[in-house]
Structures are given as structure tokens and as C-alpha cells.
Predict the structure of Replication restart protein PriA.
Amino acid sequence: MPTLAPPLATSSPAVTDTNARQKKTVLIALPYPLPGWGFHYSLPQGMALRPGDIVHVPLGKRVETGIVWEEPTHLPAPLRPPAAPPLNPARLRPVIACLPLPPLPQTLRQFIDWVAAYTLSPLGLVLATSLRAMPAKPVMEKANWLWQPLSFTPPTPFSPLANMDKHPLAKTDKPGPFEYSQHHSAYPSFTQPEPSPNLQPAKLSGPSVRITPQRSKILQCLTQAIEEGKTGLSTAELAEQTQTNPTVIKAMSKAGLIKQGAGPAAPLFSPPDLTYNVPTLSEHQAKAAEALSVPIRQNIFCVTLLEGVTGSGKTEVYFQAMAEALAQNRQVLVLLPEIALSAQWISRFQHRFGVTPAVWHSDMTPKQRRKVWQGCITHQAKVVVGARSALFLPFATLGLVVVDEEHETTFKQEEGFSYNARDMAIIRAQLSQAPVILASATPSLETYANIQAGKYRHVLLPNRHGHATTPQIKLLDMRQHPPLRGMFLSPLLTEAMAETMDKNQQVMLFLNRRGYAPLTLCRSCGHRLQCPHCTAWLVAHHNPPRLICHQCDHQEPLPSVCPACGADHNLAPIGPGIERIAEEVHTLFPQKRVTIMASDTLTSPQKTSQIVEQITAGQKDIIIGTQSVAKGWHFPHLTLVGIVDADLSLAGGDLRAGEHTLQLLHQVAGRAGREQVQGHVLIQSYMPEHPVIQALAKGDFTAFLRQESKIRQAGFWPPYGRMIALIITAETEQKAELIALQLAKTAPHHRTDLQILGPSTPVLAILRDQHRRRMLIRAPKTIFLQPIIQHWLSLIPKESQKHIDIDVDPYSFF
Ligand SMILES: Nc1ncnc2c1ncn2[C@@H]1O[C@H](COP(=O)(O)OP(=O)(O)OP(=O)(O)O)[C@@H](O)[C@H]1O
Ligand SMILES: [Zn+2]
């Protein structure tokens, strides 16, 4: 086994001289969740390695792919991992080979260090996210077949690696990567592809071949192209330049006068055309675009919030900033909060830049992923748009990062290692010396606080684009205008819906709850249908009919008999989900065309675009949706938005409940009246005096943030303090209790500058059959909690440590 090697406190190059018989050692990071900061290996004589090189090393009996790593001395001292025990060079095993791939860029390696250290995750776990899509062999687009004169021989062999970094070991090393590759089918050597049989030039058919003037023109044209340094001309090019018919060209090939050979392979991604469709920006927009472009031209890191009311043209404005980065020949990364949004975003990008960007999300084939990965490292992918994990792509020259809808909670990843992609995007950009644009109509308090502190710049778009105005918002006090019995829509809302649809305009109803009813209750015995694996009610769905646990996705048929008392047909649905709202709407407006937008119906980007196209084309009258309808959609005929239950997410003790409710509802409201016709929003609430509902009605988001920031500042809550949650999960309640007790006993209670809360039993006491307990540790902003947590966890048994998940900057408290 290789020696575990967490880093030493001092800086060291990738390859170190050790005194033992001058054996050289090298630090290698492996994509597995192992403890420590990489493994040491010895370097075979004659092999030279650079940091970032991709290598094969032995691990146990297997051969693994790893990366030549450096000690993370660039990290702030409190985040640096503890020192490693001294290593014994005699026990080290040698690196097997260096692979013929460009090295992993330093900015990415340093980013991986950062994420691992900040989130207290194993380095290899974070690295694995980065390497998952690394192609085992370079992905190639098919070469173009070009016409060439018979005499032509290509000057250099065709190599798909031509665009990649020149590898120092390609010629010198023994066994060199290319030689090595011959023994391993995964790394074939690359030479000129064999022409396919039907493209082979015919044999010269003797002196009888006629050279007509047309044929002579073609030969001249090809010779000239070769003299100009081209590899040949395509049929279309040749036909156009010589004004001849393609059949003449084919006949010449048959007669053996010209041949076809491989030209350069097409690029993996076509470069965006910066001048393809440049919009005329309004004065405000132009000013904003210029403010965003200055740091891009200067290549300096800084964060700018692009705040603009919904429909103000934030996307158009940051497209302009992207064009600036592309003009500097640097790459752009755009993070979107949800894949569902990518379809509309991509078509806007195409409209502006004439090509499709590289796309990155969980719904891609392995081949598509490999292509994007390689496009990033070879700088062929100029623009990547994607979900959080796009942060871990190996950009060669990152020049701009855009985080659209920066306030979205979906940027916070909670599975695997938990990180906030917005925050990590800032680190990523900083390491690449690239500016960041955070775009939002409702910025997060985190971003607001950074602007107040003078750390971020602020660019504002105060108006909607063109003649569109912001929607008129009206509160419906449900105590005064209650719905009919068994219904959920106030008569005032349904009247407004009818009026809107009479004018051939569309209505959107928003309720952030999937399914038909969140709870099913037995009227005879009071039994509530609960998930057998979680502390959660089973949600009734009617389409298709079944009970679903929204926590663990457990499903079972809808019963007609109470499982507790056996009473027949006495189960009652309690409360509405969107399917129940759809049912009500169908009763009220049987002729109208209704569509549901929720994760149950927007199952793929294709399905999403289909629904979005129908809405945009005016083929739907009423759109009913969960939070999936809130984000960034632009539906030209939509003029009325009804919020079915504004109070829904205000309940529950979540620290950010108010902020998030306001952001979400403001986004939903922002879908109304985005073109000529004035938009209207009706908000149903049983507590219209609540500060969040008031702020929403007044549209004064900043006033709310100011107030909220005062409250959080006073209590040192984020973003004015730091917080880490420890989540204990165990198969039995006793075990969860035991570990909670161990944590409570060893907690750093002596530190008066910390606040330690718990252990407590969360609302979700059982999740997927695992019993849960939580602890929360808080500190002022000046204290890094990571080393404290690390020390704390080292005091409890190793076996218990495995049952603890660390959530740095938690968003969820359930
Ligand atoms: N300068 C412009 N020229 C032409 N069309 C524009 C311009 N600015 C904005 N638009 C159009 O106005 C609409 C709204 O713009 P956009 O979607 O960029 O706004 P946004 O601020 O990103 O909105 P939201 O926050 O609601 O997502 C879009 O259809 C966009 O194409
Ligand atoms: Zn469940």
C-alpha cells in the first residue's frame, strides 16, 4: 500500500528529493474518498512529471488513474489539513506511466483543494467529481474529407492531440506515453485515419484521361489551395470556387485525377460568433454592460451583482459581458439553478451567438460529458452552461463566471459533499483571476451583505425592457374572501382568471406543492398515512394514482381502506397540491387548456422545451406549477399570476424562510406581463400583515433585506456569522443517541466564542430508515470553524465518525 500523505506545513514541489538513495517521490491524488491529502509514490528513473500530470499508479493490486498533486500551501492556514506522519521512501511504489493528456490545470487543482478543505470532505471525493468525465482517450470529431491533387502528401500526421498541450514526455520518456499506450488499448496511438474504402483514389487510367478546361480549372484551384497551406477543399468549396457541378469533381476522382484525404478534424464545439445578432441595448443596459466589461478587459477578479427587476434584460446584458470575455479569447462558465431552464437559455444563446454552447448537467450521456470535459481543457469549449458541478470542469483559460439567479437555494448541494455552488464559483473565479457576475432580481442576503461591506460591486437595471412595466400586485385577504367549501381559489382570483382568458391572455397559478394532497387522513380513526421509511406524510398523487414520500421517493398504491382501522372509503385528502388545484380549475373552466409545470411533468430538457413551446405559442390557457414555474421563464402571453398560498413556506423555523419565500414569490410574480400588456399578480394569504407578504405587495425588496440584515447581524446569524451543522445518521435510534452523546461530551464547550446547539432530534427524525440527530455550531465571522470541527471529530471513535455528515454553511435544518 502506498503511504498516506497528508501535507506537510511547508511548501514543496510536486517532485521531492529524499535523502534515501536519492529516490525521488511524488505526491499523487487519487479519486477516492480516502483520508489524507494524496499518496506518495516514487518516480522511476528518467520519468519527469509536472504538477497536474495524469498518471497511472498501483493501488493495492489495481492500476489507478491519479493526478500529480502539490501540497495545499495556498490555502489559508486554518483550512490547511493537519501535518502528515513522516514517510518511509523504501516502502514507496513507483508511478507506472504518465498519460498523453494535458495536465489538470493548476487553477482547478487549487479549487479542488479549496472545496475539500472548506467543506471538510476527502480530497479524493472532490477530485472524483472532476475526473468522472475525463475521457480515457481523446474524443474526436470526424475528420473532414477534402479533395486534394494526386501529388499531395499531408505535411504532418493528423493528430487529435494537436490542440492539446504539448506533452513533455511525448518523446523523451521511457516508457513514453505513446509507447506505453500501445500496450494498453485504452490509449491507442493516433495517426492519420485510414481513408474509407469508397474514398480511395482510383488507379490512374492511363494516358487517355482527358483534361478539359473545366478539369484544368479544378486542378489549378486545388493546387492553389494547397499552396495557401490548406489540406484540400470540400466538394462544396471546390464546386463554388470553380463554378462547376459536383458530378464533374466526382468524375475526375474516378478518372484518377484527384483524391480525397483527411483534413483537420472539426472542432468539438463551434466558436460563438460575437457579431451574430447584437441587440441594441437601452441606455441603462449599455451602462450596465460596460460596467461589467471593465474588469473583464483588465483580467481582474472582482464580483459584481447585476441586480435588475424581472424582465429588465439581465441576460442580454451579461451576454454582452460574455462577448467581451470571448473577445479576449477566454472561456466563460454560466451556472443556472436548474437544468429545466437550460433549454430556453440555450435557444437565447443561439439567437445571440449563432451556435450552441457546451452544456453540462446530470442528464447527459457519458460521451457528451467526455466531449465537454475535453473541450474545456483544450479551450475548444468557449462557453459552458450548466449545473453546479460544471465548476469542476478543467477550464484552460477561464475568463468569466456568471451565476444566474444567484439567490437560488438549488445552488446548495446537499448530497455527497455539501457545498454552495455560488460561493464556490467565487473561489473558482478568484483562483483564475476572472471576474464574477451574480445576476438576480432578488439578491440573497449574503450578496447584499457583501455589497454593504464594499466587497462586491453593484450594477442596477431599474426598469423592464421596452414598454413592459412591472406587474401590479394585489393582496387577497383570505379571511375576507374565502374560497367556497372544499375549494382553494378565492372567487376574486377566479373572476380575474376568467377576465384574463376572455382577452386571450394566459394565467399562471403557483403553489409550491407537488401532487394532489400533502396528507391523507382516515375520517373514522384519525390515522394519517405515513412513509414506512421516514418521519413524513405520504403525498397523494392522482396522475398517475399513488402515494409518494417526497423525502425518499417510496411509492405505494392509493388505498381505499384505512390500513389502521379498516374503514372503507373514508380516507380524506387534506390540503391542496397542484393536481388538486388543476382539478378545481377544470371544474371552473372545463373548456380551458391546462398544463402542469412541476418536476413530475418536466422530466427532461426535451419535455420541458415541448411544454414551454406550447405555452409560448399560446396553445395553453392556464399554467399551474410549483417552483419550476418561477425561474427565468419568459412567456409573452402571460399576464395574470395567482399565488395560491403565499403563507406556505413561512411556517417552520428555518432561518431563511422569510428571505426565501420573498425571493420565490417575487420571481413568480415577475412572470406576469413581460411584454406590452400590463401584468397583474393576486396573492392569497391568511396573514397579509406579515412583513414578508407586505414587502412582496409593496415590491420593496431592499427594505426587507435591510430589516432582515439587522436581525441577523444582532444574532451573528449568517451571513454575519459562521455555522456548521453535524448530522448524525444511524440504523438504530440507540446508536444515533450514543453518537450524539459522544459528540455532546467532546464538544468544545470551553470556547466561549462558540455557540453549540444540540444534539437535537430534527423534524425528519427518520429518513430512509436512518435515525437522525443534529448539532449546530456557530461562531463570529472571524473564526474558521473547520479546524475546530476537525479536532472535535477526532475525539470520538472512528466508527462513530463514519455516521456524521458535515454541512458547512447549512441551508436546511430539517
Ligand atoms: N436590449 C434588448 N433588445 C431586445 N430585446 C431585449 C433587450 N433587453 C431585453 N430584451 C428582451 O426582454 C425580455 C426580458 O429580458 P431578460 O430575460 O434578459 O430579462 P431578465 O432580467 O433576465 O429577466 P428575469 O429576471 O425575469 O429572468 C427577453 O425576451 C429579452 O430578449
Ligand atoms: Zn420516505
In short: The chain has a mean pLDDT of 86. The chain has five domains: 3-131, 143-158+193-265, 283-461, 472-513+576-711, 721-808. Residues 531, 533-534, 536, 549, 551-552, 554 surround zinc ion (ligand 2) (CB under 6 Å).
